Amino acid sequence: MHxxxxxxxVLSGIMVLVMPYYCKITFDGQSKxxxxxxxxxxxxxxxxxxxxxxxxxxxHGYMYVMLLGFVMGFVGDYLLGRSDHLRDFLIGTGFxxxxxxxxxxxxxxxxxxxxxxxxxxxxxxxxxxxVLVCAVAxxxxxxxxxxxxxLVILFVYFMLIALMVTKAAGLGMRMLxxxxxxxxxxxxxxxxxxxxxxLGMMHFKMHARTLPYKSAxxxxxxFGQQLIALSMFSLIQY
Length: 238
Hints:
Blueprint (H helix, E strand, L loop, with lengths): L2 H24 L5 H23 L6 H22 L3 H29 L8 H21 L7 H24 L9 H20 L7 H25 L3
């Protein structure tokens, strides 16, 4: 096992240990303490992604684009953790959208690099994407969230993350036979989608009990990002 991968697994263990404490202090609302711990957790998945790049000598462009996605998530975490203001929420969401776009480009470029004969899109991916977008639309119709003027932005954002999950699933499942560890990629992307769903439930008041979503949202998000970062160690070997 590569020493840098071992170091990244240690970082993952630290994340697991710190997560319960972070979930506990978030119940008290925004504070300097919660922001500090949140940014510490965010730095773990960014550092894991950086370590993965140093684990190989030959680096391709998609690797740096993927790293950009983690950096965008780091900035988005800071903005969302800094305050509850709608302005910070929207700007932070913009950075997360940029991060999802980076992942989409990175996964697509990786697919083209590893499987040149395969196009940018296939039937299975199209089917999964349609299912995810329809599911998001159904949730919006059934939950009738507040802040209706932002529904268009919310829907576009979820269309973007649905595409990210689709591309992650397409790449991860195609390489599953060669690199079983790449199952972490679609699993991590799915957890990211789940965290954004719960974040929407909280911010757009789509559920009467928002408190249980805080812990699950944080755990899904950070573990999802960490799994995506860890999957880079397998992906960049090919």
